[in-house]
From TrEMBL:
This is TonB-linked outer membrane protein, SusC/RagA family. Belongs to the TonB-dependent receptor family. Residues 1-22 form the signal peptide. One of its GO terms (biological process) is siderophore transmembrane transport. PANTHER family: HEMOGLOBIN AND HEMOGLOBIN-HAPTOGLOBIN-BINDING PROTEIN 1-RELATED, TONB-DEPENDENT OUTER MEMBRANE RECEPTOR. InterPro entries: Beta-barrel_TonB (IPR000531), Beta-barrel_TonB_sf (IPR036942), Plug_dom (IPR012910), Plug_dom_sf (IPR037066), TonB-dep_OMP_SusC/RagA (IPR023996), TonB-dep_OMP_SusC/RagA_CS (IPR023997), TonB-dep_rcpt-like (IPR039426). It is found in: Cell outer membrane. NCBIfam families: OMP_RagA_SusC, SusC_RagA_signa. Transmembrane segments: none annotated. GO terms for molecular function: siderophore uptake transmembrane transporter activity. It is a multi-pass membrane protein. Residues 404-794 form the TonB-dependent receptor-like beta-barrel domain.
Amino acid sequence: MRKETQKVLILSLLGLVSVNLAAQQKAKRDTIKNIDEVVVTALGIKRQNKALGYSTETIESEQLLRTQNNNWTGALEGKVAGLKIQTAGAGPMATARITLRGDVSMNGFEDQALIVVDGIPMNGRTVGSGTPAYGAGSGGDVPIDYGNDLNTINPDDIESITILKGPTAAALYGSRGAKGAVMITTKSGKNKDGRLQVTLNSYTSFDSVLKWPDWQYEYGQGTMTKDKNGNYYYSYGASADGVSTGGTSSAFGPKFNGQYYYQYDPTVGGQSKERQLWRPYKNNIKDFWQVGTTYSNNISIEGSNDKTAYRTSLTYLNNEWMMPNTGMERWNAAISVDHKLSSKLKANVKLGYSQTKSDNLPATGYNNQSISYFMIFQNPNVDLAWYRPIWKPGQDQVDQIHPFSSYIDNPYLIAYEMTNSLNKKNITGNISLNYQIDKHFDVLLRSGIILNDELRTQKRPWSSANYLKGYYREQYIDGFNFNNDLMVNYKTAIGSINLTATGGASSQYEEQKTQNYYAIGLKNPGVYSLTNAQAQDFKIPTPYDKYVNSLYALLTLNYKEKIFLDFTARNDWSSTLPKANRSYFYPSVASSFILSDIFGLKSNNLNMWKLRASWSRIGNATEPYQLENYYSVSSFPGSVEIPNLYANPNLRPEMITNIEGGMDFSLFKNRLTFNATVYQSNSVDQIIRNVPVLWETGYSLRVINSGEIRNRGVELMMNAYPIKNKSFSWNVSANWSMNRNKILSLPAEFQGEPYTMASVGGVVYYNAVVGGSIGDLYGYGLMYSPDGQVVFGTDGLTAKPTAMKKIGNAFPKWRAGIQNEFRIKNVTVSFSFDGQYKGMAYSQSHHKMTEQGKLEHTLAGRDNPDGLIVGQGVVQNPDGSYSPNTKGVAVPTYYADYWRRANVETNTFDTSFIKLRDARIAYSFPKSVIQPLKITDLTLAIFGKNLWMWTKFPLFDPEAATLDNSTITPGVEMGQLPTARTVGFQLNVKF
């Protein structure tokens, strides 16, 4: 029987091991023969994995396409040790914050990995809508997740993703790679037989809400008001039963027990003529949400011959999100051509185009105009259908229906009238020329460009809570990112030593401009144009431009393929630093020892034993415009304002020193592989922007170099084939990682006081203190007696502290993930779990819904005969001793006080979780069925994502974060939108 050699992808969390499997029917035993895996490293240089002195992981395209994601980053969740994907739970765009090995900077959660596509770095910047997450009643707007350049990358076009976790791995990218790098290689059309291949990949998926808060539907609207007979009652407006109780947002009213009250009647737009049944509407929030749908269709054509390889693809994705009238659509087109111009000269060209459009994206945050705000304020006795007409009779586009409070906008007004549109176009181009001078020398020239053009609009109708006369905004964002690389490579052998030397230069220029036009108040309702403005406002374009020029070198030595040694050196010149400090140099060294070869230990049980170690020192520049003071536009026409930040003309680059060590094992004919890594990085000369100065200087803040942060961590990865034969195989992969962050020093200017790196809503503060960690949450909390009991005042309310304290940390103690794949003849079943232990998050929604009596835990005490609750705790006596608290307070007052907004402690919760992150069942039709149809592969699959979750976090999702303007801030839930549970179907056909 003839032998067929197939390439088998062993998908695992420790990276994909590319192997050749000789599938022989007569083989007496199953073997997996390991060959040297080739991975893409910094600057697109391909290296053997065994030669690397640092940890990398690779994810292949099959894993990315197992479950559908509007943003490809979702496919990485839980599958790479040390990598965290954080989104703000803000809608279908799902902008991701990607971090590797924790945060190393005190600049407000800006530590994001570099994204590199086919050797061209992307900027990864997010331009926000300019509004904070907390803004209820402020008259302002709301944050909107418009996405960034990562959203434009099409997962159907990705061949593989290599994760360069630490500064050493990404050292050749300089300051841009100081926080690690995610290397994306797109498909090029090369195939083994050179024939033309057409591939159709089609998805259909359905989204529903994964988890709801535990709303109570036993009591309705009110504040425990009693009538003249001493009974609790309800009245919408004053009535024969008593004064109005329908103007509150609280649900401390009468229990639903078959009684009748004067209530709101939508047919008259006011109080009902007769008393109506007092009843709950248990789906009056859930029914607002719909089943979301996503359709994605991709077609690609590829082929190759001895000189040329090509691929072209077209993808259309349409998403209708779970919130009515929201969603997006995206077109992606790509073409790739590899061509041998001569025996020595090769050319590669890749072009990509994407367009993302949306008539409406949802707003997030705690603000009158977000749907999250409505869900918090909706009362159990209010029918959702009462809001559906949106406008009062005869008042279309003039006066909305919101019968219970002018501060609570109609949910259908939010969905259908308060729209946030997007039209974003993105063009990427990449050309490289490789010339082989002789057998030792070759030269690579590579240029890439990324062009963006984006239009956003926000429409706010008349009678909205924050804009009584309406509002309209146009935001234009355009920019480009231009990169050039010139590399010379030299390879030779000196006896038993192989030597490779690479030298090169690169330049990067990035420019972006943002323009905003405002119509503040609309002359004619429902007409959204700048010419319809009652008053116009125009902001001078906000620029963002910087350049970095670099020289770099890489020297690689290996002795008999047993001992490998790498040296790198790079010098950057950054425009964001002053002339005297603009140039900064940093080196790295990495080593790899194949101990199994060195000591002759190879056997069937021990296939490889590798020791690796590395050291690097990486410079990191800052954002532009930190060196000089710039005026900003004033709200008064023709005038400007002085800045409050005093610039620093003597800034130095941050420096990150990283050491890493690890071992890799391959056992039992490569059926079991195991990787262990330990690392430490120290970041010094932190560029800190919010150092206070005396007001007499004319400024309030300044930017300086100071402070040191240390990160230590452990990463463990395992991949195994417990069973593998021709009819059944089982592959299991797992990873575990932990990171410990410590602040070693702070600027002397703080004089021992904490440095507030960021804050959200004026209640949660991320304070840096010596000995503390990035992500420490500070705020006001409870006071305790020496034996740990809560202290109350003589008024029966909690004692109020005068100082904030540490509540917890936004980041978990550790993270882990496990994936299983079973192949039973033509059926493949795969699923993965991941989770985290500990970590804390503050919930604004929990505070407000508790204060208003909307959650089940607020039912306690309502049936007390006197309507009072006595808090469990003690009262401090005049002599300093403590005695039990006996003072009762009204039920609404107790909940409003104990869980008040400023009490960060009682509204902060453990974010431990376990998720069934994804699952898939696929059937590949046998060749006997598809060959007569001229089809080479036909696969049908059903898949799911976020199918199940265990957590004690009380709101939607423990992976909570807040979109605060453009910053994704972990550890705070501030008007989070629901997380989707996804079920879908996939068809993959190859001709």
